[in-house]
Every structure is written in C-alpha cells, then in structure tokens.
Amino acid sequence: MPADLKNRPVYVISVAAELVDMHPQTLRLYERKGLIKPGRSGGKTRLYSERDIEHLREIRRLTQELGVNLAGVEEVMRLQYELDDLQGEFEAEIERLEGAIRQTQALPSPGAETDPKDRPVYVISIAAELVDMHPQTLRLYERKELIKPGRSGGKTRLYSERDIEHLREIRRLTQELGVNLAGVEEIMRLRHELDGARARMEGNVRRLQQDITERMTKWRELPPASEQAGTDESDVADE
C-alpha cells in the first residue's frame, strides 16, 4: 500500500478498537500518553489510519507478548514515528531530486562516504569506562545483539562513537526507565534501523546532489547552440 494511503485517517475509534482487539478506552489512554496520534475529522471525531492500526498492533505485541512496560513502549513508538517521518522526508527529497535529474543526462554516481561516528576505535576496557559499565556487561549486550562492535584484524572488539551513544542509551532505558531487556532489544533494533535508514537517505541524497552538480557543470561547458551550428556548417562546407 502506498505511504500516503497508509496515513489516510479512515477508521472511527470503535472500528479501530475492533481491528486491534482492544477496548476503545485503551486507545484513548494510548493517545493521552502519545503512543498513538489519530487524525481528527471536521467534527473532531478520532479517525485512525492503516499505519495507526499497525502501531496499535505493535503496542499490543510489546505489552502482551514481551512484557514491556509503558516507558519502554513510549521509546519504541517514538522511534517508530521517527522512522515513518524519515521515510516520508526521504521519498519527498528523492522525488524532488529526480525531477531535477530528469532535465540532465545520466552520469555514474560517486561512492558513499563513511560517517566518522561509525569508525571503530575504542577497545572494550575503554568503552566500558566511557559508559560506566563492566566489560562483561558489554559482552552480554553484544550476545543479545543490542550492540554490534567492530573487530580488528586480530579479532579484538572495537567500539565506535555511535556504539558508545547506544550503550549510554541502553543504560538510560534499563536504569532510569526500568525497561526490561526484551523492550531494550526492540528499541535498539529500531535505533539501528533508524541510523541505517538515515545514513542511506543522506548518502542517496548526497549522491543525487553530486549527480546534478556534475551534470549541470557539463551542460554549462557545452558551446552555445549558435557556435555549434556554425561548426557544423563549416564542416559541411569543407566537404
């Protein structure tokens, strides 16, 4: 289903509640907590979109199947909304750039650049000190795939600046918000997905912008049409 159709508010609260097997009062509670953001009709009636239904099903999975508390669910849904917004921005930007590209000739795209924040530089003892955790805790989080450090040629774990940010976020979720590890896994999975989507979007936009610049430069370097016509006529005369 196209993204714009998935965001179209169409279901009244009674239908939405039936679709996700919840009581309408539960949907109102989730709205008050900012977990779900239904649209409104002209008469202020709540209207839920297909994406809202997906989000409500995800909330039910997190709370009923994984036992995640509401603080953890709030983190998950905030990240999910960020992903949705990023996807919308990406599609709009790509459409704008492709419109500009259609006016020029195709050229090969340059390679993507690596973000310095992803460069693995810290050994496990330094990383553990930076985030105030025991190295064994970092190994546990790696086994649970909450964090994915790089490796040196000798297989030594090396953590990047982004890994350090993620470890600090895990500590905040577990110690300050009381989120269980199942909830943290969901949140960190979404964080990795969000970081990856953002990096891909920025890389694609950068390549398209470079594409346009190179094509416009080539276009400006072409001789004026009158000069080109004069050259063609002299070639004919010489023959």
TrEMBL record:
Stretches assigned to the HTH merR-type domain: 10-79, 121-190
Pfam family, one: MerR_1
Region named Disordered: 217-239
Transmembrane segments: none
Coiled-coil ranges (or none): 76-107
CDD domains: HTH_HspR
Keywords: Coiled coil, DNA-binding, Stress response
Compositionally skewed regions (Acidic residues) per UniProt: 230-239
InterPro entries named in the record: DNA-bd_dom_put_sf, MerR-type_HTH_dom, MerR_fam
NCBIfam families for this protein: heat_HspR_dupli, HeatShock_HspR
PANTHER family with a match to the protein in the record: HTH-TYPE TRANSCRIPTIONAL REGULATOR YFMP (PTHR30204:SF58), REDOX-CYCLING DRUG-SENSING TRANSCRIPTIONAL ACTIVATOR SOXR (PTHR30204)
Name listed for the protein in its UniProt record: Heat shock protein transcriptional repressor HspR, fused homodimer type
Organism of provenance: Deinococcus lacus
Lineage, highest ranks first: Bacteria, Thermotogati, Deinococcota, Deinococci, Deinococcales
